[in-house]
Amino acid sequence: MANLTLANFEAVAAMARQRNNRSQLLARLARQHLATTSADLPDLPDATAQGQWPWLRLRSLTLGPFRGFREPQTFDLSKRVTLCYGPNGSGKSSLCEALEYALCGAVEEAGSRRIEQRDYLANIHAGRFANPNLTATDAEGGEVRVAADEDAFRFFFVEKNRIDNFSRIAATSPGRKTDLIATLFGMEQFNNFALHFNESMDAALTLTTETQAQLAGCRQALRTDELTRDGEVEQLRALDEAAADYATGVAENLTYNNLKLLVFGSEETPSRLQELDTKLRSLIPAVTNCSRQIVADLFANADIGVKNLATSQRSLDEQRSQVSFRQLFAAVQALRAEREDRCPACLTPITEVASNPFERADAGLRELEELARLEADHDSLRRAAGEASRALRTGLRNLEEFLVSEGRADTLVGAYLHALPRNPEAPDWWIAVYSPETDETGATPSLEQILVVADQAAARDERTREALLRRDEDMAEQTRLNEARVWMAEHDGRRSQVIENAAQARGRITLWEEANADLIRRASEEEQANVRDRPIKEAYDSFYGLLGRFREQLPGMLMADLNASTMALYNEFNHGDRSEDKLADLRLPLTGDGIIDIAFRGNPQQRVNALAALSEGHIRCLGLAILLAKAEAVGAPLIIFDDAINAIDHDHRSGIRAAIFESERFRQTQIILTCHSPEFVKDIENHLPRDLRDDCHQYVLLHHRGDYQPRVNPPGTQNYLARAREAIDERFNARDALSFARKSLEMLTHKAWKWLESHRVGNISVQIEGPGKEPQLYGLCTALRKKLMDAQTFAHDSKAPLLENLNTILGIPEDNLVWTLLNKGAHEEPNRDDFDMVHVETVLAVLSNVDALELRPNR
């Protein structure tokens, strides 16, 4: 929609919002061209990146016929500062508009007045206008012609009308505040264009659905069939997606068709499910859990058990004679539980027998505790030997089963294992394998032969375990495929049912449509109009919303990150205000209904609306500060002041002059200034730092003398020192030289006084002749000299040379004619003595020396 608007910009801009005229036009254009209009960004010239300019400084401008200039006129713009002044109507605005046209390609004032550019820019006496020729100097020092680029150069201009409009912002509605903020930055034409779009284009479009609603009412009886018919594709798609998801769940990257092949196979290839069924019906040998190490350990454990048991038996046999005593003592202890007060043998009371039998039994059992321990160990060893024997027999039985399963039961080892009793009673029934050569029948294998069979069993166990793992995987796959077989049968049934239901529904719908053909046709035409116009509505609504959001966000985009620099400039403009009346904080609005939020140094915690708290003069200073902060933020190499200073009251002009022309802030920026105040131009030239003075010149524009061509005087100077030197060097006129010298001395002494005051040593005593009068310059110079001599702790590079030059000029006697003129001027009088040229040169030298010193406040 934006591209369509841009392609028909003149026609759209000519239409206002009244009676939906602009919407009607856009609706017709959209129906014809929107579908074929590109949705891509238009091919616009690349915007110049901030701080990357195609040139460094303007060089010259030739204009005419153009506005107030009937004939071509060339202006030298090669200096860093170009000052143009003259009365109203002398061509200053035409000069600025020529610069605006050359830099931006159009003059905003023409658009604001709704006048064609050619009609507005033409000189009425010549009946035409010629494009201004503007040249500049590039980074290599070469001359280039300036190409217009409104996006890049719009912030180069500071105009009086913008500041005037901004000063009236406090009395406007929030919506209008957005317009005035845009106007401040030279975007008024955009706002006017944007404001004439209608909020909605609906009235110009076909968006109703009456016929379709009537048709829908008649179709209600077919609603179920239409839903069935219309939902067929979606249902089948959902079923197919479910099938694809199910197949992927069975195996990664598996398609549904491939899953069918796995489950059902094909005529050429059996299914994977059949293959698994066959495979799983085959038997896998049992695991023997035998290996050389295991069997060898079983034999070793059995040998140890027999050996330990035999050793224990020998120990018991050696103490067998003691067994009868232990049994006797144990019997006596058992009788004690029945009656411990009589002898168990003769029933004599214990107190009467010579020796207590129970105590003798306790003592005897304690003496036979070692025998008891040996018997207990022997029992334990016998059980361990039996367990080792049984374990060995179990292991050999597993080897026997292995050989049987392998069909090797008739081998030497197989026959030996088969002949072994199931539960051998002999304590060392396996001992023969250690010396098989003693078996004359040759039926006994060696231990090594048995271990070889164990190796074979272990190898088969490994294969069996691997097969069991594979079998588990096959069984899991078989389960998945069986489940898939059931799922697919159900899925295919559901899919067939959807297709059948849709086919039956279509048949019933066809019969109904034949009976309602005319209503269907009219509803279709309405629907096509809806289809055509709804995207237009959506495009317009989106475009209008975007345009509104852009206008709403425009203040934030224009004034982003300008808070600190704007506040600093504002405070510099108002340097004469009391400290507590200067700003401690400033926040520019980010939306159209936002406020300019400020806090004063006197009460930094209290925030107020700047437009309610500031005077009109201060608001104008704020507008100028915003414009200059924006130019500084984009790194503008040029700032053009179109009569902007005349929008500011006199009280603030010295601060503005110092901030723009005397500070370091815009030292590298080219400045072109027009105004109708010779005094302001004179002050600029006299207060410019000495090292910048040669890079400044001025033009005086005056009314024509009947030829309708403004008079443009060649560049000159109003600097007092330069004019004093010119009076001596070119005209040998000491009186004129001292007249300008007096003005220069007055300016420099006040400048020095303010400089001392900024360093808190400016409190001086000076005599004046009466109320309302200024102190004489001799007295002021004397007071300054005394202050410098008395301020022992004050140190500055400019102190000593300033004191030296004050001493030099004060070395001229006060009653000398030179001081008579410097103090209060001298009138034309007959027979007056000539001025001493040595003293005149001394005065000019002193003024030149002081002019070269750093005497700016706070420096």
Written overview of the protein:
With 859 residues, the chain is of the alpha/beta class. Among the domains are: 297 residues, 3-Layer(aba) Sandwich (Rossmann fold), CATH 3.40.50.300; 162 residues, no CATH class; 132 residues. It is 57% helix and 7% strand. It has 34 helices and 13 strands. The chain has a 6-stranded mixed beta sheet, with helices on both faces. Strands 2-1-4-5 form a 4-stranded antiparallel beta sheet, with helices on one face. It has a 3-stranded antiparallel beta sheet with strand order 7-8-9. It is elongated and about 175 Å long. The protein starts with a helix and ends in an 8-residue tail after the last helix.
How would you describe this structure in keywords?
34 helices; alpha/beta; elongated; 859 residues; Rossmann fold; single chain; four-stranded antiparallel sheet; six-stranded mixed sheet
**What is the CATH superfamily of the domain at 57-196 and 560-716?**
P-loop containing nucleotide triphosphate hydrolases
CATH class call of the domain at 57-196 and 560-716: Alpha Beta
The neighbouring-strand order within the major sheet is 6-10-11-3-12-13
What would the average pLDDT be, to the nearest integer? 83
Distance between the termini: 57 Å
The CATH architecture of the domain at 57-196 and 560-716 is 3-Layer(aba) Sandwich
What is the overall shape?
elongated
Number of strands: 13
By DSSP (H or I, 4+ residues per run), the number of helices equals 34
Helicity, as a percent range: 55-70%
Structural class: alpha/beta
Could you list the spans in which at least 5 consecutive residues all have pLDDT below 50? none
**Backbone CA Rg:** 58 Å
Largest sheet: 6 strands, mixed
